[in-house]
Amino acid sequence: MPDVQIHHRQGSFTVDVEFSLASRWTVLFGPSGAGKSTILRILAGLTVPQQGRIVLAGRTLLDTAQQISAPPGRRSIGYVTQQPALFPHLTARDNVAFGIRPLSREARDRRTLEMLHLFGAEQLADRPAPQLSGGERQRVALARALAPAPDLLLLDEPLAALDDASSQDILARLLALPTRVLYVSHDLAEIWRIPADVVFLEHGRVTATGPLQHVLASHRERLVQQLNS
């Protein structure tokens, strides 16, 4: 049975999908407006679909038929968007520590610094969030999302607003992690070398799944032709 089954209508647009998260990395790929962000919001628990079932690591997070819907904070899911929403009144350190408050002070401090170091942001620890650049905010947002050691990390085009050097550095750091990732993108060049399965989404429907380079080979060829024309 697929891990994710969703039927959700918003106005005139309907998302109707089934797919599994069998690989450590899965890329949810498709054009703008295909429903990718809607699916991530449903997985994170921020939107409840009309019908759906989500199972992660053996836990049922959503089953509308059984009236089960785990709240966002109890899904063990990290979620990072293109525009990270850090708490403006907190430093980078306190932003990362926010989601692990149940830990002891010593454990919380250790985990916070570990996560900042993981994304090359330890020097930002005491800087207020409004003083961070876009790339710095994204590094802190990723550190915050991973601090609670989630079962799944949702990434909604997290590198789209960054320069190429920052994007490549952050992506390399993410790929080195053991965390299961669902990565949303419509940029074929960005994802082409990611060792991942892909769920190809068009108009709210899954039109293909499988190894990324195999499924998207025809789209890469078309992109190359467009660039050379």
Structure characterization notes:
Helix content is 32%, strand content 26%. The protein has 8 helices and 11 strands. The termini are far apart. It has helices at residues 36-44, 92-97, 105-118, 134-146, 164-175, 188-191, 212-215, 217-228; strands at 4-10, 13-19, 25-29, 51-56, 59-63, 68-69, 77-80, 152-156, 180-185, 197-202, 205-211. It has a 6-stranded mixed sheet with strand order 7-8-9-3-10-11, sandwiched between helices. The relative contact order is 0.18. A hairpin with a 2-residue loop joins β4 and β5 (59-63). The chain is of the alpha/beta class. α3 (105-118) crosses α4 (134-146). It has a domain at 1-74 and 180-229: 3-Layer(aba) Sandwich (Rossmann fold), CATH 3.40.50.300.
CATH topology of the domain at 1-74 and 180-229: Rossmann fold
Q: Classify the helix fraction into a percent range.
A: 25-40%
How many angstroms does the end-to-end distance come to? 44 Å
Number of helical segments with 4 or more residues: 8
Helix vs. strand class? alpha/beta
Name the shape in a single word: globular
